[in-house]
Amino acid sequence: MPRKYWIIAVSITLLLAAADGAYWRIATERLRTGFQDWKAGQIADSWIAESGPLSAGGWPTTAVLIVPNLTLHHTGPRVPGEVDIASAAVTLSVSLFDPSTLGLSLTGPVHVRTAGVPDLIVTSDEASLLMPLRRNGPVSASFHASGLRLEAATGAWHATAGLLNANAAIVADAQPGDPGPAATLSVAAEAIALPATIKWPLGPNLSSVSLDGRLNGALPQAGAIAQAAAAWRDGGGSVEITHFAMGWGPLGLTGSATLALDDQLQPMGSGNARIAGYADTLDRLAAAGMLTKSVATAAKAILSLMAGTGDSDEASSVDVPLTLQYRTLSMRQVPLVRFPELDWPSP
């Protein structure tokens, strides 16, 4: 190749590198400015945010801002009691090829403490959050974590999940009567291990749990939680669980439901479920004292009849209607479980 072509090629490469470097510096500075604005804006919501010195990286493909020792402290009416959150490091990133999406990843343990609850520690092999940076429309986010572990700082117990994925979208300015939901949520988790310090009637391991749902009615405003819940109820608020699935020991459960609040601000609603392994499940619940033996026997008999089989030929699965009223979960007018009263926290 003639010398002049080498010079042209090198010149183009240097120009591209310089342009990419300038683009990276602009994107990094926007991340830094956005984070500082976010910190300043938290004061209006009764949050205090602090962190160590920021550092940048990621060139040539990504703008990265590393936030060490991020702490959040909250006191105010939005959340009952004080809340403290501390993370060893948070990394903010924007791909230079897709600057419309903000990535957030956690490094090291996250400590969470709320009023009356001992310090909790959250760790994971991987934990990341993706948020579109559009200025209008619903606020959405996607969360992914693997090797997730939640434990008490005292080491008294721990719970784990091999995989957790969640997607949410919120219409912050939703009004009563608006078409469409004010928020949607999708969650799926696998390989869940519950705290071994509790004797779980269906065993300490869940193979999977998934839920798709949406919130109807304007989002509650800040203030007294009970008053906000009453306003949401009076505005036609409801929760639709469009799909739920769970595998826990002998129980396989899928279903859907619609829930709301009654005049005493207690949950009420109705739904349908498909239950597999119901005989063994009811026996275990009765043995654990969560159901009386008579209720378990009656429920098994009804489920067998609904499945079109006798007691001696239990069906592996059956579809059943469920209702929740006056804190009692019933199946075909047969009470199954009575829940404790939901006590809304004081402001």
Number of domains: 2
Q: Helix fraction?
A: 10-25%
For the terminal residues, how far apart are their CA atoms? 77 Å
Largest sheet: 17 strands, antiparallel
> How much strand content do the residues show?
over 45%
* Radius of gyration using CA atoms only: 26 Å
Number of helices: 4
Taking all residues together, what is the mean pLDDT? 86
Low-pLDDT windows of residues: 310-315
**Anisotropy-based shape:** elongated
| DSSP summary, beta strand count | 17
Spell the H/E element sequence.
Answer: HEEEEEEEEEEEHEEEHHEEE
Give the oligomeric state of the chains in this entry, treating copies of one chain as homo and distinct chains as hetero: single chain
**What structural class do helix, strand and pairing data support?**
alpha+beta
List keywords for this structure.
4 helices, single chain, 17-stranded antiparallel sheet, elongated, 21% helix, alpha+beta, 2 domains, 47% strand, 347 residues
